[in-house]
Amino acid sequence: MVAEAEAAIAAHFGLAHAVGVGSGTEALWLSLMALDLPAQSRIAVPALSFFATAEAVLLAGHQPVFVDVLPDRPLMDPTQVPSDVAAVVLVHLFGMRCPTPAVDVPIVSDAAQCAGWGHGAPQGVLSSLSLYPSKTLGVAGDGGVVLTDDDWLAEKVRRIGTHGAARRDLHVELGTTSRLDAVQAAVALALLPHVPAWVERRRSIADAYDAVVQGLPRDPADPVHQYVFLTDDRDALRQRLDAAGIDNGVYYSHPMDIQPTLTDQPIGAVASRCPNAGRYCERALSVPVHEGLTDDDVARVLEVLA
Ligand SMILES: Cc1ncc(COP(=O)(O)O)c(C=O)c1O
Fold this sequence. Notes:
By secondary structure, the protein is an alpha/beta fold. It has two domains: 2-192, 3-Layer(aba) Sandwich (Aspartate Aminotransferase, domain 2), CATH 3.40.640.10; 194-305, Aspartate Aminotransferase, domain 1 (Alpha-Beta Complex), CATH 3.90.1150.10. 33% of the residues lie in helices and 15% in strands. The chain contains ten helices and eleven strands. It has helices at 2-13, 24-34, 52-59, 151-160, 182-191, 195-210, 234-243, 260-263, 275-283, 295-305, and strands at 17-21, 42-46, 63-67, 87-91, 107-110, 126-130, 144-148, 165-167, 170-171, 227-230, 284-287. The protein has a seven-stranded mixed sheet with strand order 1-7-6-5-4-2-3. A two-stranded antiparallel ribbon has the order 8-9. Helix 2 (24-34) crosses helix 4 (151-160). The chain is globular and about 60 Å long. Pyridoxal-5'-phosphate binds next to helix 2 and helix 3.
């Protein structure tokens, strides 16, 4: 069952290999371990992502180097990637394809939010996908997948996820336990054929919202993992959405470089070094866009937004 799900997910992204692991975080962590970089290498990550992106770099024994995002999109500015990094993690936030920086070091894609995207294979030697229930291809618990076209890297990631064992009782490198369990694989396999229709529905809901608010710039191939728009009136709007019983959230409220685990300071006590990310965090708001919404649900959201 796991092998079947892996093959189906690899085909979904047009890549040769998919290795099932325990979560999207582990998928990125194992990908970075597989690069075999010297300890404490500097690895570029965007200032905006779910914190797991930076955490995976730290867990792999490296240092995240936070790069500001573009002025108009929460995606790493490719012109600001420092020349001394040993690798770059691109995050395709909300399934928006991050531009590729011109660097001569390995690129890994954090494609956690990218199920259903129409951009072809994510850039880089390895990509990580999350199967967490909130994702478009969300299973009934935790799960993740490492994607690659490289036979050797696929085998290495699989080995790292099984304690670095080349065979039973022969541990040739440091690894951990990270497996996609068979039940979650069965769920992924059953849900995957529905993803294209779900993504179409998400796109059409996003089009409706775009008519009344300033949504993020969208490529027709984006799968719309979240619908995010920018507003100068966020607190008041959130109150109106709450009063109408409409779920809403901020993805993300702070750039990653000021998270307390990195600064040893309370959140907000230290200013981010990434001003575009900071401005985005002050204005971003998201409303429901998932395929389970009825036309009436969408109309209710539009009524509050308009
Ligand atoms: C961009 C990004 N990276 C990594 C992760 C981690 O995935 P998981 O929750 O499956 O560990 C997530 C999950 O939300 C994510 O959105």
